Amino acid sequence: MLAGSDVKIPVLGVGTWAWGDRSTWGMGGYDAALSEGSIADAWAASIDAGVTFFDTAEVYGGGRSESIIGQLLADDPERAAKVQIATKFIPMPWKVDVRRSLMSSLRASLDRLGLPAVDLYQIHGPISLRGHGALADALADAHAAGLVRAVGVSNYSERETRAMARALEERGLKLATNQIEFSLLRRIPETSGLLSACAELGVIPLAYSPIGQGRLTGKYHAGNLPPGRRNFSNHPMEVVERVVAVLRRIGEAHDGRTPSQVALRWIMAKGAVPIPGAKNADQAAANAGALGWELTAEEVADLDRAALSRVGGVAGLKTRFWQHG
Ligand SMILES: NC(=O)c1ccc[n+]([C@@H]2O[C@H](COP(=O)([O-])OP(=O)(O)OC[C@H]3O[C@@H](n4cnc5c(N)ncnc54)[C@H](OP(=O)(O)O)[C@@H]3O)[C@@H](O)[C@H]2O)c1
């Protein structure tokens, strides 16, 4: 359940950054197979497998991701009735009147989605020049207007998560989620104490880039690097290959589960909800194969060890304006 609401989400979601995005994910560019048709198939396969939680953002594809979801919701009312939709407001530093900016972004998102309200509205990153109180005021306005059912943040550190939870509490709201980059290639949220703070606060961690932007599927290697500008979890391929080898070995002991299914299961074992991207029905169905079985404590420990040298590590080199989470 998302704190402060009656919205229930499954333990696995779907990320939709690729839907309508050209520069990173190649729609209309390097990935000729990524189309509105393949996206509709991913949508249907996910929902039919019980994966009903979809994450988007106003900035994905410059709004295209939300528009595609809006079209799918309109075309497929039976599946639409089963889903939970999350989107995000990006509080760019120049949006100084954050109350007004958030409300106008939210209304534009709802328009593209064709919805009267979203299930979860997230602050995309701690990049506002305004304090937590101003952002909490803006979220409280949206909640009071009945436009959002639950509120969350993204890319917030432990300190920022606690501060935002407090600011929302003062306005009678609960912080439901913190969406962070978390995978076997990036364990900082676990080692920094962020995950335990989320557990203490009742905040659900949503794990983005959970399969390292495709790297933990095992399909990419030194001779076949991921296409596009996939900067997150961009570790040396020998590190990726070492982790994938352990994922593969563990998957074989579980009726041939794939490396990415094991990688998603590891995230769930850490108490986070992974939101892997899916470009088509095969990927959606494969990701849903992370449901319905469990890793042993020993297997989780094996994976921890395989990923050990990546704790902190190269992630610190990322050229992003948020570094923690
Ligand atoms: N809040 C934030 O700042 C933030 C940042 C990043 C992402 N996110 C969210 O998190 C979601 C997921 O992260 P992500 O898309 O960066 O990375 P990801 O989920 O780790 O990787 C997704 C990519 O891996 C490949 N893939 C997925 N499932 C596969 C399968 N079963 N078999 C083979 N290949 C598969 C696909 O690309 P190819 O087929 O092209 O390899 C897919 O686009 C995003 O969509 C977005 O909603 C949020």
Give a quick set of tags describing it:
12% strand; alpha/beta; 12 helices; 39% helix; TIM Barrel; eight-stranded parallel beta sheet
Summarize the structure in words.
There is one protein chain. The chain has 325 residues and is of the alpha/beta class. Strand 1, helix 1 (36-48) and strand 2 (53-55) form a beta-alpha-beta unit. It has an eight-stranded parallel β-sheet, covered by helices on one side. 39% of the residues lie in helices and 12% in strands. The radius of gyration is 19 Å and the shape is globular.
Task: Tell me briefly what this model is.
With 325 residues, the protein is α/β, with parallel strands linked by helices. The chain has helices spanning 36-48, 64-75, 77-80, 98-113, 132-144, 158-169, 188-191, 194-201, 237-252, 259-269, 281-288, 297-306, and strands at 13-15, 53-55, 84-89, 118-123, 148-154, 175-181, 204-208, 273-274. The chain is globular, with a radius of gyration of 19 Å.
